[in-house]
Amino acid sequence: MKTRIAAILPLIAAMYLSGCATVPTAPPQEDAARKQFPLPPADLAGLYIYRNSSFGAALKKRVFVNDEYIGETAPMTYFYREVAPGSVKVSTSSEFGNNDLIVEAEAGKNYFVKQYIKLGVFVGGANLELVSEEAGKQGVLECSLAASPDK
């Protein structure tokens, strides 16, 4: 039995890590404009949510801002939203529910949230992390702007 499990594990790992999910992307001009990292209007905060890893490439993960669905990420994609200042809840679908991150956003500033895939029991999970502006800009530059579901 152990031999059989040991033989199957590499196959499962290969299936988990192979393939590549894709999502619709925004026009290149819109992507290029967002990558200039303009500050949001004085009464709003800018929120970049990015996934700059190919780990779990076959997985798409849903993203929500203040419980509003904004789309699915695939490897090397990002979203941008302008939000009201204050406590902003960013959520991502994971294996057994959503993982949430609260960002205390100030007006006139940009914030960067990294989504990453983690191993799960049945499928890969996802989590979120608030990162520095420097790390966030670098991560976003590696990605393409995902189109919103309404576009």
Descriptive account of the structure:
With 151 residues, the chain is of the alpha+beta class. It has one domain. 21% of the residues lie in helices and 40% in strands. The chain has a 5-stranded mixed sheet, with helices on one face. It has a 4-stranded antiparallel sheet with strand order 3-2-5-6, with no helix packed on it. β7 and β8 (125-131) form a beta hairpin.
Q: Concise description?
A:
21% of the residues lie in helices and 40% in strands.
Task: Give the rounded overall mean pLDDT.
Answer: 83
Q: What's the overall geometry?
A: globular
Q: How many beta-strand elements? A: 9
Domain count: the total is 1
**Can you count the helices?**
3
Features:
151 residues; alpha+beta; 5-stranded mixed sheet; 9 strands
Task: Summarize the helices and strands and which ones pair or pack.
Blueprint: H1 2-17, H2 28-34, E1 45-51, E2 61-65, E3 68-73, E4 77-83, E5 86-94, E6 97-105, E7 110-118, E8 125-131, H3 133-141, E9 144-145
Parallel strand pairs: 1-7, 4-9
Antiparallel strand pairs: 1-4, 2-3, 2-5, 5-6, 7-8
